[in-house]
Design brief:
With 96 residues, the chain is an alpha+beta fold. The chain has a single domain (2-95), classed as YaeB-like fold, CATH 3.30.2310.20. It has helices at residues 7-23, 27-40, 42-45, 88-95, and strands spanning 2-5, 51-52, 55-59, 65-71, 75-83. It has a 5-stranded mixed β-sheet. A hairpin with a 5-residue loop joins strand 3 and strand 4 (65-71). The model has no long low-confidence stretch (mean pLDDT 96).
Length: 96
């Protein structure tokens, strides 16, 4: 299965990386490695996750982030990678 990370999700990944880089040396790189590992797991498990705000939601294994995606028979579209500590109303608006 092919995975497409949309520009909106790329922006989320950059923001998350910058946040964690400010927290500690190379923590941003570790954040990206972990999130990309979770995204890569969608090759096998796309579509099994609960739908939230109209998208499937995969909770990241090591960071408090959620990966929102949609999928068809051949492709997974990663729409957003959002910090779960945000206000749910803000998350909903971001995904619409």
């Amino acid at each position: 299965m092919r995975i497409v990370i949309l520009p909106s999700a790329t922006d989320d990944l950059k923001a998350g990386c910058q946040f964690y880089d400010r927290q500690g040396e190379r923590l941003g790189d570790y954040f990206l490695e972990c999130i990309f590992s979770d995204i890569d797991s969608l090759r096998l498990y796309a579509g099994i996750h609960r739908k939230v705000f109209g998208y499937h939601r995969l909770l990241a294994a090591r960071f408090p982030y959620a990966i929102y995606y949609s999928a068809d028979e051949t492709t997974v579209f990663v729409r957003a990678v959002l910090d779960c500590r945000q206000d749910p109303v803000r998350l909903r608006k971001r995904l619409k």
